[in-house]
Amino acid sequence: RIRPSSVGADAMLSLTGDVTLRVRGKDWRLRLDMNAMCHFEAQTGEPPFPWLSLFERGEVVSALQLRAMVLAMLQRHHPAAELQDAGELIDAVPDVLLRVIAAALPRREDLPGEGFAEKKRKAPSLWRRFIAALSVWGSRRPTSGR
Predict the structure, then answer these.
(1) b/e map of 83-118 (b: 16 or more CB within 10 Å)?
(2) What does the pLDDT profile of the chain (146 residues) look like in tens digits?
(3) What is the C-alpha to C-alpha distance for residues 53 and 49, in angstroms, rounded to an integer?
(4) Strand partners, 28
(5) Which residues of 14-23 are buried (b: 16+ CB within 10 A; e: fewer)?
(6) d(C-alpha 93, C-alpha 89), whole Å
(7) CA–CA separation, 38 and 136 (whole Å)
(8) What's residue 53's pLDDT?
(9) 113 alpha carbon, distance to own chain's centre
(10) Are 126 and 110 within 8 A, CB to CB?
(11) Beta-carbon contacts of residue 23 (< 8 Å; ≥ 6 apart)
């Protein structure tokens, strides 16, 4: 596990954002992070980056896969959550995935770098933002022998 102190907390670019939703009297906390994406891929066999890109563009996505992604986002804070719980969250808050994506991934203009926002006016796809953010974060890690 990488601890903020090992890479310098001020140099880290967070790729996670928790969203808490109150549904039927219970608080549900969701997080889109690497573990959630790996859980989604393990459960569905679908790579998460292209899937999220399709979802972001509004292209048809399987209801089973949508529910699997919401369940994957629940696992961090609710490891006992089941597919039924994920489905009920989607029923109650249809834009749940969009909310968590917005909290987790930086917009292009929020990424550091000289002239980064001016390079391209059109917003990049979700998976490109994620990869770009990983690259920025990775470039700031110390490279001394560890």
Answers:
(1) eebbbbbbeebeebbeebbeebbbebeebeeeeeee
(2) 434 433 333 334 456 778 999 998 999 999 999 999 999 999 999 999 899 888 888 887 799 999 999 999 999 999 999 999 999 999 999 999 989 988 887 655 555 554 544 444 455 566 566 656 555 444 444 444 44
(3) 6
(4) 21
(5) ebebebeeee
(6) 6
(7) 21
(8) 85
(9) 22
(10) no
(11) 88, 89, 92, 93
24-34 exposure pattern, b = at least 16 Cβ within 10 A, e = fewer? eeeebebbbbe
- Residue 40 CA to residue 52 CA, distance in Å, equals 11
Contact assessment for residue 18 and residue 29, using Cβ atoms and an 8 Å cutoff = yes
The Cα 132–Cα 112 span in angstroms is: 10
State the residue for tokens 């399987």. Answer: 62
Radius of gyration of the chain (CA): 16
